[in-house]
Amino acid sequence: MLPSENKNSAEQGTLFDRLTESLLRRFAGKTSRRGVVAKLGGVAAAVPLFPLLPVSRANAASSSAAKAVAKATTPFGSKAQAKDANACDYWRYCAIDGNLCSTCGGGVHSCPPGTAPSPTSWIGSCYNPQDGNSYMIAYRDCCGQDSCNEVTCLNTDGDQPSYRPMANNDIIWCFGTGTSEMYNCSTAAVIGKAS
Q1: Which of this chain's residues are annotated to bind substrate (predicted)?
Q2: Is 141 in the active site?
């Protein structure tokens, strides 16, 4: 480099330094440290609120229908119906194995006349397509008469092996009824909402 070029770059450097210094001094003269810190704090506090803007909620609202379909994750839940309690695809029957009491003179949750409910039951969690919620269902055998064999269903949502009897639908639960241990039919009573 020539000495004259070196001098010009030094003058330009000092010119840039002088302009930067004058701008910063002017800025510092018009603002205070507390004001700058307050503005930075306001920005830091506002940043986490951006996900709450309406844009984010619009996407969430459009996916609510997809969430309802996602709740029915079992094959039975995706084809369940809520209108005909005498059909095997009725939503409460997702884990039932046996004759439907609703077709044998009883109801969905009541035994036919002349039979007695078993003292114990097995449980299942079934998806109701009508309201989009899942419910805990207690399946109870009705005992004391011959099997009615009107409509027999075998649904296995959540069925567990027999060493987990509370969720096994293959066991005849008529022991301990005080009447005959003959199996007649099975009921499906809603216990409450599943979480």
Answers
A1: 97, 169-171
A2: yes
Cα 161 to Cα 191: distance, rounded to the nearest angstrom: 22
Please say if the pLDDT value at position 127 is more than 80: yes
CA atoms of 150 and 165, how far apart (whole Å): 26
Task: Specify the 3-state DSSP secondary structure of 64.
Answer: helix
Q: What is the pTM of this model?
A: 0.58
CA distance 177 to 117: 7
Q: Who's near 153: CB < 8 A, 6+ residues apart?
A: 88, 93, 96, 97, 98, 99, 100
**Per annotation, catalytic residue among 91, 141, 157, 173:** 141
pLDDT at 100 over 50: yes
**Top-confidence range, 35-44, 74-83, 165-174:** 74-83
